[in-house]
Amino acid sequence: MKLGDEKGELVAVFKTHYPKVGAWGIVLADIAHHVAEAYCQRDGTFDPRPILREIIEIMNRELKQPTSERMCVAVREPVRPARRAGGGGR
Length: 90
Known about the structure:
Helix 1 packs across helix 2 (about 50-65). Helix content is about 40%, strand content about 5%. Strands 1-2 form a two-stranded antiparallel sheet. A hairpin with an 8-residue loop joins strand 1 (about 1-5) and strand 2 (about 10-15). The chain has a domain at about 20-75. It is mainly alpha-helical.
């Protein structure tokens, strides 16, 4: 998955596959916490809760009424052949 802003300057690629889809809820919550803490550090504030509330509010709004179309592009890594044991000597 790639994420980016309207200018395409912020890009993140996730290559991890979780066995349960619900695990993404934990990943997204962790990202929201990290973002809130980063804003606190940048602004010199100590309470990330107001920032986190704003992130959650806007995220919920975006989930209900998306502001843009989403395009999902699945990229699969090539399957590599299994290595032979013993170094391949005859």
